[in-house]
Input
Amino acid sequence: MGLSPRPEPHFVETTGNEPWITTKLDAFINWGRSNSLWPMPFGTACCAIEFMATAASKYDIARFGMERQAFSPRQADLLICAGRVPFKLAPVLRRIWQQMPQPKWCISMGACASTGGMFDNYAVVQGIDSIIPVDVYVPGCPPRPEGLLYGIMMLQKKVMNERSGDKSLRNEMEPDPKSQLYIAPSVIDEVSEPFGNSIHQTRSGL
Amino acid sequence: MSKYGQSFSPVVAGSALGSQAPAPVTPKSVPHRGGEPNPSAAAIGQQFAGAVKRVDVVWGETTVYIDRDRVHDVIRWLHDDASQQYDYLSDVTAVEFRDLEQPLEVVWHLRSLPYRRFLRVKVQLEKGTPLDVPSVWDIYRGADWMEREAYDMFGITFAGHPDLRRLLMWEQYSEGYPLRKDFPLRGRFSRSEQLRQALAANPEARYSQDELSIAEAFEDLPADMRRRLQRGDKVGE
Output
């Protein structure tokens, strides 16, 4: 056949001196989590094309433990929002984020998802961080696959540095108007009117 | 026989021109204005006296300005008459000009495949009058979503449309009609108010199972595919 014979499988000795290591539990868990992220692409525009290129054979995010693309939010732990999000899609994106089980992370891919990009108009959300929490922002219009890979590797570093004892990382808070920290939208509008921010930019006269 | 009536019959482009007609060629030099008008424009003028307000020929394309009250009859005749056969409605849209005095225009792009003709029909709606034109949904079913879009973006009501709702913006959208010139680019409300209203919407209520369902198309499938689906076989393998 021209093929070399299959080597005999090597069994670890179950008696005698077994190899063993010591490590921190956090390091072990985070190592596992960061190298088996299950991404769910939320592709709405041209960034999704670059995401497909990233997932395809040349750039191949399977090398980073993302072999399995999840197309259901319930079996995903990384949301990659690739493309602009119009206001009509805002409740859908938030619902998808709420459907993902903890632990979960989010990458905002491209200028539109991160800031609204060139679509500074009546229809487009000015940055998905006003709807859901974002871990890594990838700039570019659209970002090249290398850019997305770099963002993914940054997220892996971030996951590696998490502490599983820190419950606040996994807290999902709804804005509570009774809380001392709550700022009403009208107040945000008033405060930000002269400056503009990603949510509220200086209004045009007409 | 499907629920949509007559069975399928192919349309051959240029079939009404006869076998002696020359093959269509790309025109080489087209004047900006004053080219050869589409013969349908003169035919409308003869058939409907006084309905045609103006005929423009720009870059070889003919635009006919029609009286608002008679546009439905004109389009019906263009569709039905054997000498016209405008069987394809490629677009329904509207135009508002920066000059606020200028009337708003509703545009129909009609194409006659058998005669290889293109005709642009326009109706001018004066500012301050109700933006109201007849729907052509009863002539071309394809007008459905295009009229909904024009309603959504410009606030033009198409009388006779069976289901005139917003198409692109959501139904509770209350800031107005985005493509009108008096609409601010970033909308009327502040960003936080826009976001609050958008997030308050319930997606399930908007995208109902009925609307997403393809079950009602089941009867229109070919008989062998229906049999396979009823048996629970996989299709496409």
